């Protein structure tokens, strides 16, 4: 075997050894995750002859909507929310949140710690946000227009 061949073999063995030691110590390449979410508005309705219109007011903000009875006595209630409302990732993962706008003309979405500014999700479009989940903990995901109801939770599990 030539000198260069010996160096190549030894280099290969050294790289393999480093990789094995890294794996044994739990050091792994960051995983990439794409998480699909939807901005939705579940609704329910009934006529006043079956259920009376509730008099209590909802909290302020656009997250809850209650429509008074129409000419036929039908009233509706709806709430804006994320689906799923809870997202769980591992510390160190590279995460892409893809949020499709189903209901509501727009959603200014903020992910605590990982995206301090709001990014826009419009009905019929997909808003994408990429970040590395480098800090374990529980973080709020919320929509500015539809508070207080449209909130989600990002859970970053420690390594």
Summarize the structure in words.
There is one protein chain. This protein is mainly β. The chain contains one helix and twelve strands. The protein has a five-stranded mixed beta sheet, with no helix packed on it. The chain has a four-stranded mixed beta sheet with strand order 5-1-7-10, with no helix packed on it. Strand 11 and strand 12 form a beta hairpin. The longest helix has 22 residues. The radius of gyration is 25 Å and the shape is elongated. The chain starts with a helix and ends with a strand. The N terminus is likely disordered.
Task: Give a brief description.
The chain has 159 residues and is mainly β.
Question: Layout of helices and strands, plus pairs?
Answer:
Layout: H1 3-24, E1 32-40, E2 43-47, E3 64-67, E4 74-79, E5 81-83, E6 86-90, E7 94-101, E8 106-111, E9 115-122, E10 126-132, E11 137-143, E12 151-157
Parallel strand pairs: 1-7, 6-12
Antiparallel strand pairs: 1-5, 2-4, 3-4, 7-10, 8-9, 8-11, 11-12
Count of domains:
1
CATH superfamily (homologous) name: Cupredoxins -  blue copper proteins
Helix residue percentage? 10-25%
User: What would the average pLDDT be, to the nearest integer?
Assistant: 86
> What is CATH's topology name?
Immunoglobulin-like
Total DSSP helices: 1
Q: Secondary-structure element sequence?
A: HEEEEEEEEEEEE
- Characterize the overall form: elongated
The end-to-end span amounts to: 44 Å
Strand order, largest beta sheet: 6-12-11-8-9
Q: List how many beta strands DSSP finds.
A: 12
Give me the secondary-structure category. mainly beta
CATH architecture: Sandwich
β-strand amount: over 45%
Indicate the low-confidence ranges by residue numbers.
2-27
